[in-house]
Amino acid sequence: MGVRPVRILLISLLVLTFVSCANKPTVDPRIEALVAQKLMLDIRYFCRENDINPATQRCTTPVTTLPDELKDMVADTGIGGIILFANNLQDTEQMIRLNRDLQAASAAGGHSPLLISIDQEGGRVVRIPQNISTAFSGNMAIGATYAEHGTHFATLSGDVIAKELAVLGFNVNFAPSVDVNVNPENPVINVRSFGEDPHVVSQLGFAQMQAMQNNKVIAALKHFPGHGDTSTDSHSGLPLVEHDLAQIKAVDLAPFQYAIEHGDPGMIMTAHIQYPALDNSMFTATNGTKTVLPATMSRAILTDLLRDKMGFNGVIITDALDMAAIAHFYEPTEAVLQTFKAGTDIALMPLAIRTAQDIPKLKKMITDLAYSVQTGELSLAEVEQSVARINTLKQRYVPTEKEQLTLSQALVKARKTLASPAHLKAEQELANSAIVAIKNQQAWPIKPATKIIQLVMPDNSKCMAMTTALDDALKATPSTTDVAIRCASLVSDTTQHIIAQQRTAQLVIFSDITPQQSLVEMGGMDDITDWRLRPKKEALDAKLMSLMKEVKPHQISLLISMRTPYAVVDYADYLDGILASFAYNTQVTEQVDASGQATLYYDGPIYRALANILVGNQRATGALPVSIDKVND
């Protein structure tokens, strides 16, 4: 090829490039600003290049103070919200400063205040450090109090949780879960549900929602249209619910419909679940497979049903889009595009921002979504209506700059509010009222002749918490003195060691946590490696059964079911007593003695309540909120 033809070719390429760029439409900044308001990001971790773990190539440096790169990202993009996790939260002053810095970054960019959100359900899903806050025993424990106390503890817990969040600068709580737990095998909801009765779940969910919103914290009812009958965790797979329309209406939708008709829910969170009776449309995943649309991507479910038929006027937010039920099937921008088409107002966690190199990806996502609006793939009118709903919510619940306390005033208020004596009293009252006696053949109160109690707890932290609570309760009871309490860990102690210990005890107290901890309790998809390394539950169950079979006729044995009670029927024939607590929250505090020696102290309201029942200082007054097979008492 000669010089002249090469020159002609280069000129032609330059002309084509110029024409291509000239033809590419300019994206309207106003539309970009609208789209950005519809995104809520997590800033759980952020690393500079030399901070990334060389072995895993993962960023695991928690964001506890706001880096300049993230400040600029918030100011430049105008994103509408942030979700924080336990890794982001250390102590009172740090939490307040981080939330204030986030709001300042948004204001510096000329944007409306951020929605700053958190998963603070109570019970198994809490993000605020439990040693400085009030966690409560959770929804199924509240459900166990309904027969005697009605909605009292739903209102009380919602009030306390919201007050503590508000003083820290949070304005959205992804709670309550109003899923009706009708599946004993549910791996992710279970004790996060108030129970199996749609009427009870409706009443308790509404009461907790109202209490939160009365304290200027937006409640997000979840997971629409219902996550209560799944055997798959949507963090790790795509669940399918095969209810017919009548059952969906009577069970799954009932709590959401009740809240819409009787109040004004600020938010409803979608579920990454297939509901073919509501929408059997198919889609093609990134790997080429075809499957039924999940609710998060279904216009028939989110717009036609939730908006038009059920009458919901608030903000629809997705569950986290990094969960496998979505991320396995969609590329990030495509996932956001599809859920916006379905009628979602806010896309939660659409893209992980872990380094400065991820920020341009976010900006490109915003530009690409805005381009979809300009080309008509997304409706501009619907995007404008969506942002109007978000702004209405912000105006109603997010304090203006004039309403903000100074930092010193906010710190004083927060320290008075968090884990205040009144709040801790409420937390203990719920624990006391929630425990259910499923079986008691003279297993408790602990008999005066008892000299050795053997505890078999799930792990060492629960060993220490239960030992402390039981020791304190026994010392306060004159009829039970000089009792030795020994504890073995089901996870770390061998079967032979535990059997040798329990042989000399007059009372053996076992405990069980079924099912195991889910990803949402640990924090989310960033914890999936640790989640997969959990001890195998089948092996622990077999070990527990073998220990129960070793109890001799002259010994008394009982089981404390610390999560869902469905499995107790498998053990009932080997036991004299069964108690259900629905919770095992353990608080850890550091105590320093006179010599300056620091020790960790393990405690918790549920352990104190159990101990007082076992020594006879109080009765177990709760009622089962879910059905189990009959246990002979």
UniProtKB/TrEMBL annotation:
Keywords of this entry: Glycosidase, Hydrolase, Signal
Gene3D superfamilies, A to Z: Glycoside hydrolase family 3 C-terminal domain, Glycoside hydrolase, family 3, N-terminal domain
Glycoside hydrolase family 3 N-terminal domain: residues covered: 67-393
GO BP term, pick one: peptidoglycan turnover
This enzyme's EC code(s): 3.2.1.52
InterPro entries (UniProt xref): GH, Glyco_hydro_3_AS, Glyco_hydro_3_C_sf, Glyco_hydro_3_N, Glyco_hydro_3_N_sf, NagZ_Beta-hexosaminidase
A Pfam family hit: Glyco_hydro_3
Keyword Signal annotated: yes
Signal peptide: 1-22
Membrane-spanning ranges: none
Catalyzed reactions: Hydrolysis of terminal non-reducing N-acetyl-D-hexosamine residues in N-acetyl-beta-D-hexosaminides
Molecular function in Gene Ontology: beta-N-acetylhexosaminidase activity
EC top class named in words: hydrolase
Lineage: superkingdom: Bacteria
Protein family per UniProt: Belongs to the glycosyl hydrolase 3 family.
Entries under PANTHER family matching the protein: BETA-HEXOSAMINIDASE, BETA-HEXOSAMINIDASE-RELATED
Protein name per the record: beta-N-acetylhexosaminidase
Organism: Paraglaciecola chathamensis S18K6
The gene coding this protein: nagZ
